[in-house]
Amino acid sequence: MTEIIDTFIAPPCHDKIEIVYQDEYLVLINKPSGLLSLSGKNPQNLDSVHYRLAQIFPNCTLVHRLDFGTSGLMVVARNKQINAALNQQFSQRSVTKKYHALLCGHLNNNHGVIDAAIAKKPELFPRMSICEHQGKPARSAYQVIERLTHTLDNGATLPLTRVLLTPETGRTHQLRIHCQLLGHPILGCDLYGGCLLANTEHALRLMLHASELHFIHPISKERVKAYSTSPF
């Protein structure tokens, strides 16, 4: 069995967490890009969403996570019972999640679905792998918002496509690896080709933002619909 050694040290994140909504049961936040969702085993990676929120809400637990470079909406439970209730919604896929992203190049189709199983491969860590035989089912839908051409300071042009991504499952790195499979990696994605194409190496961040999150409040039973404007 291949031993996984995580050598990643997160640079300091000076951006604050925005609390979008809170009550005695849960907290809705906007996570900044460049902040871990959960503190790592390495003491140098202490700072995280959970670490910061635990100073305010001592019993809080993460219901789901966003990648280090991804910004946007997260729901955090304030006790174990609420965590279990929200986890059930995620497991049953009754939670709606939508993301805005900038993809490298111009997509030919205006919409489509990527259906490709994803597996963990310790020898590739931290990358995931597309594997139909050993992977878990993963399905993502995309819709083109606009095709644009960004002019860089050096005069070079960079074709990009702004898309709305809707993951129907919640696998690790799902949207990032699915966009790579599509042939148009997310700009700024260091693991799946978003920094390899010409003029993409200077992207300031991973251009992926969790812009919508819809779920049922475990106590009030009302549908919560949270929206966050993409910063890019």
Structural overview:
- With 232 residues, the chain is mostly beta strands.
- It is 12% helix and 34% strand.
- It has helices at 49-54, 80-91, 174-182, and strands spanning 18-22, 26-31, 61-62, 71-77, 96-104, 111-115, 118-120, 128-130, 139-151, 157-167, 208-216, 223-227.
- The strands form two sheets. Strands 1, 2, 3, 4, 5, 6, 9, 10, 11 and 12 form a ten-stranded mixed sheet that branches. A two-stranded antiparallel ribbon has the order 7-8.
- The longest helix is centred in the middle third of the chain and has 12 residues, at 80-91.
- The chain is globular and about 50 Å long.
- The mean pLDDT is 95.
- It comes from Providencia huashanensis.
- Residues 25-180 form the Pseudouridine synthase RsuA/RluA-like domain.
- Keywords: Isomerase.
- It is an enzyme of class 5 (isomerase).
Structure in a nutshell:
The chain has 232 residues and is mainly beta.
Shape: globular
Total helices: the number is 3
Low-confidence stretches: none
Sketch the major β-sheet: 10 strands, mixed
**Residues in helices, as a percent range:** 10-25%
Q: What's the gyration radius in Å?
A: 18 Å
Oligomer: single chain
What separation lies between the terminal Cα atoms? 41 Å
SSE pattern, N- to C-terminal: EEHEEHEEEEEEHEE
Number of strands: 12
Mean pLDDT: 95
Beta-strand share of residues = 25-35%
Secondary-structure-derived class = mainly beta
